[in-house]
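Hello Y.,

Per our agreement to keep a running log of every chain we model this quarter, I'm adding this entry. I've kept the format consistent with earlier entries: sequence first, then predicted structure.
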Amino acid sequence: MEPYLLWIIAGFALAIVELLTGTFYLLMLAAAAFGAGAIAWAGQGFPLQAVVAAGIAAAGCWAVHIWRAKNATEQMAPVDAGQPANFESWIDESAGLARVRYRGASWEARIAAAGEGAGGLQPGALLYVTQTRGSMLEVARNRPL
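Predicted structure for the entry above:
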């Protein structure tokens, strides 16, 4: 099989996998494979094909990195931040894990600064949600700013 066909097949394979990921990095690698395929089709040797592929891949990945850094969105504050929750019981006091009642349901929560006076929490004590991590709340004694 001709070398340019191998490069073209690799380019299409990378482009197809890119459709599944959506990161654009594999698209740059596909463009590099297509560029190397064009050099191979022109009859140049493998060393030049490899240099062209590496150059296009490096430049493309750098461009995607810069583009993603410029277009990164700030993470929004969680909707639950600042909402009150009531302490129910400790799950593991040394790790700061507890059960809290929030919005009528019992939640697993990590208490911020658990080692700093959190041991005196009594059932019903008022805590405030600072953020959520999956199905776990992070709570603190003071309302977040």
